[in-house]
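Tokens for chain A. Residues wanted.
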């Protein structure tokens, strides 16, 4: 016969199933339920499913923060638009939300910015994670093109390259693959130049 102490041990060592049952099952979340989640955890949403990207590392955040600062300085001084870092929900289309590492929206598209999420973006930047390289290199490339985001930057610490992709009709074409010692440029933001070496050095500063 189980004692009270044995039952208490079993109960306290198990997940809180009763709380979990308050939430929808995977595949059955609505957009409203997803948007109502109150957490600082990165959570993306895909047609009823919650997706949990890996939490960024210190070096990952160093690179993302550096790029965000550069865009803020360049675009802000020219009143071109707004730049933000994750966590920030971006609605690609009905039922699909991502949280790019850095996003930029032109000033003339301010009507696509809400308090809860952005409706698309004009530039999306992802720092490639070694946990799932295919996610940034293939999946998000396809999704951001489908969402008609004009530019997608793939910042790859493993290769030390910044690939700037520009939308050509329904798919992305390479504007340029920029390596150490070079300066990455944007077609959307004429005059913007990003020192590639300094970008990856930001991982440790």
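Reply:
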């Amino acid at each position: 016969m189980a004692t009270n102490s044995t039952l208490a041990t079993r109960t306290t060592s198990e997940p809180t199933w009763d709380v979990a049952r308050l939430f929808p099952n995977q595949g059955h979340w609505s957009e409203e339920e997803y948007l109502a989640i109150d957490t600082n955890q990165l959570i993306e949403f895909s047609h009823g499913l919650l997706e949990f990207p890996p939490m960024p590392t210190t070096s990952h955040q160093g690179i993302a923060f550096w790029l965000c600062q550069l865009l803020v300085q360049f675009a802000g001084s020219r009143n071109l638009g707004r730049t933000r870092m994750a966590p920030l929900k971006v609605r690609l289309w009905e039922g699909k939300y991502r949280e790019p590492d850095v996003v930029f929206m032109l000033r003339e598209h301010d009507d696509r910015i809400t308090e809860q999420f952005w409706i698309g973006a004009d530039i999306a930047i992802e720092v490639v994670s070694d946990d799932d390289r295919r996610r940034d290199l293939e999946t998000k490339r396809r999704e951001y093109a489908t969402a008609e985001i004009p530019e997608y930057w793939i910042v790859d610490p493993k290769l030390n390259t910044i690939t700037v992709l520009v939308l050509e009709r329904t798919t992305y074409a390479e504007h340029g693959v920029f390596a150490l010692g070079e300066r990455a440029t944007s077609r959307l933001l004429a005059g913007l130049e990003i020192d590639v070496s300094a970008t990856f050095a930001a991982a440790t500063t």
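The radius of gyration is 20 Å. Residues 58-77 form the longest helix (20 residues).
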